Amino acid sequence: MHIEDKHTYYVYILTNRNKPMLYTGITNNLATRLTEHQENIPLGKKTFAARY
To answer: pLDDT per residue over 4-49, tens digit each?
Structure first.
């Protein structure tokens, strides 16, 4: 079996300076996913990454 559509996935770890928390995630588009995390912060969304 030959699979021509190759998918690349990234496992990422986020943290911040103020709280010793680690957030882990997986995505196939790292740049877009990190931008989504950044956009949630000023919106005050109740996501784990936005809170910490």
So the answer is: 667 889 999 988 777 788 889 999 999 998 888 888 766 666 666 6
Q: Do 11 and 26 touch, CB atoms closer than 8 A?
A: yes
Domain total of the chain: 1
Domain assignment present for 15? yes
CB-CB contact of 14 with 37 (8 Å): yes
Q: Is residue 3 part of a domain?
A: no
Which domain does 14 fall in, by range?
10-51
The residues facing 24 across adjacent strands are: 13
13 and 24 Cβ atoms separated by less than 8 Å: yes
